[in-house]
Amino acid sequence: MNWNLWGNSVEARDFSPDWKHRYFGTEVPCPDNDKHQFNKQWATCVLNSHNTWQPTVHLLKCGCMVSWDIVLGLMIMAFTLPFIFLHSRMTTIRRRASEEHNEVQHLRSLQAELEEHVRHDQSLFLEALGVPFVLMRPSGRVVMANKKACEFFGMETLANTNLLRLLPDGPLRQLLKEATGAREMVRSTLQIPRADGERVYRAKATPLATREHHIGIVFLDITEEHRTQVIRRDFVANASHELRTPLTLILGYLETLLDDPEAAEDAELRQRSLGIMKRHADRMARLVADMLTLSRVETPDSGYLKHEDFDLRQLAEDVQLRLEQMIAEQKATVQINMEPSPFPLHGDSFYWSQVLFNLLENALKNNPSPGLQVQLSARCKPDGSRFICLEDNGVGISHEALPFIFNRFYRADKSGRIKGTGLGLAIVKHAVEAHGGSIRVESEPGRRTAFIISLPADKN
Questions:
Q1: Percent of the chain whose pLDDT exceeds 90
Q2: φ and ψ at 24, to 5 degrees?
Q3: Does residue 187 contact residue 206 with C-beta atoms inside 8 Å?
Q4: CATH level 2 (architecture), domain 306-459
């Protein structure tokens, strides 16, 4: 066997015990008892035998270089592998952290969207109530409120507002103060001044079974209900008074005639007493009839109103004929001017007859002096709307009395010389409104008074 090492042939036999002599050209003793000395001498021989062992030196150099590269590679691997592992681990951690961050962001987005939906639903619910509503803490700080509540308190927003500190002393603040310490619902009726007049509210404060003991307060506008109750109460009181007066007179004359035989036999006294009783009985009959008429026109859905076509001019002429004696006695002048003629109208002719009769009779009663001029006119516009006006040149109505002229039993003349039930103009107003129209009054004291009725096109 031989090996070719850098062009030199080396056979297996060359690796005999004397191979050092053949290859290095010198004999190197190798005593068995002194290996250290042998290695030292052998290394010296190697250094001194430069020419003869050049291939072997080259081989050793290559082996050392290969070994150093391996060691260096192992050292590099030993240092870099942990960094590679850590980098891979950190990359994985970063990726997972990014995924978790994105998931958290998504959850936060969903939570924000859910909260926005909840707030929107709460806002819709609060606005759907249609009445002022406030939710507050016992300290008085507002948690939530709808737009109606903001309008009620006259503020753009009530969020985080302390009502107990904001409101001055009064019924409203007293209600809120009582509600903060109450265990049951607190009710109160509040009268609050507004730009369009005094409004009446029924307030309800309810303690809620929440952790923070919130209080829910709702304000119900009962102004119209309150006014209706007041009107009914006044109506009953006035009607009782109006009925009591003629009844008292009738009973007085009856007692005189029944208890005094001589008075009953006196034909003149008896006739005068009967005449007085008849006038007061007629007044009571008129009062009852007006009250029935008023109650019917106040409820147009009750079925009392008829719907028919009629000529308003014909009704006006009939009314003028019914009041002809009164017109003649006062030497008044009544002119009817309607275009077109006949003047068509749709509705209940009976109630329109009451409207014209009461307006004309009211003008004659309030202006008994001779020479009164009354003009009843009506016009039809191209859009189909209609205007009816009754105007006189009488004493007029004072500015203080104008807001109350259509109230039940209201009399502008406090002297009592003008007779009547006090329901005539109230009937006029409700009859016109029952037909979908409106009425207003214009007056210049000492010069003129005009009642103007407007009817929209869709009501004709």
A1: 11
A2: -110, -10
A3: no
A4: 2-Layer Sandwich (3.30)
CATH architecture classification, 133-221: 2-Layer Sandwich (3.30)
pLDDT score of 301 more than 80: no
The three-state secondary structure class of 333 is strand
Angle between helices 424-434 and 267-298 (to 10 degrees): 30
Q: Where are the beta strands (DSSP E) in 156-299?
A: 186-194, 197-207, 215-221
Within 10 A of 428 (CB to CB), how many other CB atoms are there? 24
> Mind listing the pLDDT tens digit for each residue in 11-68?
444 444 444 444 444 444 444 445 445 444 544 544 454 444 455 555 445 455 556 7
Q: CA–CA separation, 450 vs 363, rounded Å? A: 10
Distance between CA 31 and CA 154 in Å, rounded? 121
Alpha-carbon distance of 129 to 363, in angstroms, equals 48
226-298 maps to which CATH number? 1.10.287.130
User: For the chain, which residues make up each domain, given as ranges?
Assistant: 2-52, 133-221, 226-298, 306-459
pTM value > 0.70: no
- What is the SS3 assignment for 221-271? ECHHHHHHHHHHHHHHHHHHHHHHHHHHHHHHHHHHHHHCHHHHHCHHHHH
